[in-house]
Amino acid sequence: MAEIEERLSALEAQVAALTERFGAEPPPAGATTPAGDVFWALNGLKQRIPSEGSGAVLYTGTVRLDDQHYDWQYGRVVDDVLAGNWTELAGVLTALAHPVRLRLLREILGGRHGTGELAEIEGLGTTGQLHHHLRQLTAAGWLHSAGRGHYAVPAERVVPLLAILTAARR
């Protein structure tokens, strides 16, 4: 239990540091980008990071799906990303590396949440295979149970998922 508390404390400190570094204030309602400034987000990031460092990575998004709205922003300094243990991320990324799982995520974001609805989709395999894929996505944090036999993409994973899919395109 002490290990979990230490990890939680470290995460809270990291969130506080990121909030201080990148700002916590959302843009005003109805804010628009300056005319012609293609790199408005990049320029804002550059203003917030130390010039002597190796840089930073920021992803952000605002998404409306059905009656849900997701706003998300996350940034890390490059030194922290490079210093991290990338092998720990293999399971999270592997969960996305299957066509059926990607299809399931798309269908769930599109409004099909129940296993009965998902089982009706052609090409997803048997019920056992469907449950296997749902377990893999849940274990990796891409899904959570939203009630008995119902699944949802956690709010904090919607924009990151879409960012990964966007980055995967060439």
Describe this structure in words.
- The protein is α+β, with helices and mostly antiparallel strands and 170 residues long.
- It folds into two domains: 2-84, no CATH class; 87-168, Winged helix-like DNA-binding domain superfamily/Winged helix DNA-binding domain (Arc Repressor Mutant, subunit A, Orthogonal Bundle).
- It is built from eight helices and four strands.
- The strands form two sheets. The protein has a two-stranded antiparallel ribbon with strand order 1-2. Strands 3-4 form a two-stranded antiparallel ribbon.
- The longest helix has 21 residues, at 2-22.
- The model is unreliable at 24-30 (pLDDT under 50).
Sequence stretches where pLDDT stays below 50 over 5 or more residues: 24-30
Order of the strands making up the biggest sheet:
1-2
> What's the mean pLDDT score?
85
Helices and strands, in order, run as: HHEEHHHHHEEH
Give the count of helical stretches.
8
| Helix percentage range | 40-55%
The percentage of residues in β strands lies in 5-15%
Largest sheet: 2 strands, antiparallel
Estimate the global geometry from the Cα principal axes.
globular
Gyration radius (Cα, Å) is 19 Å
* Intertermini distance: 44 Å
Number of strands: 4
